Amino acid sequence: MDLFEIAGLPLHPLIVHAVVVLVPLTALALVLGALIPAARRRLGIVTPLAALLVAVLVPVTILAGERLKEEVGPIPQVLHHEALGRMLPPWVFAMLLVAAAQWAWYRFRAPREVGHPARADRIAGIAFAVLSVVVAAGSTTLVVLIGEAGARAVWGG
Length: 157
Hints:
The protein has helices at residues 11-35, 37-43, 46-72, 76-85, 88-108, 119-155; strands at 5-6, 9-10. The longest helix has 37 residues, at 119-155. With 157 residues, it is mainly alpha-helical. Helix content is 81%, strand content 3%. The chain has one domain (5-111, 118-155). The two termini are 34 Å apart. It has a two-stranded antiparallel ribbon. The mean pLDDT is 92. Strand 1 and strand 2 (9-10) form a beta hairpin. The protein is elongated and about 60 Å long.
């Protein structure tokens, strides 16, 4: 039994679509949560859980891709796709850290008087906004580049 196949099909192209959808959605949720307090309250723990799911799926997708590369061979386009794919884990782990820290900060900090945020809250809000935008933009851009390279490896061009 091959762990990297489902019904005789390679696992990589099957689960890569989950990564392609979930990374940008998680990135969007992270940025919305950082910039819009109502969105942060509504999303709650969903954003860090989605980031955790992505952080698990990305290494599995890479392992499945390595298995598929063994069958396909070291084609230059595949090697380029692989090189880009290996750049994604730090970005999704950073997204997980920012999502978890943001959720924990707003979930467990002492409540402040409405309309009078403490200096620490303002600094944290700015830091979460900047970090969220950076990791969201980086991870989403990389997913687009990886996907484009993968499509060229499969379909030529």
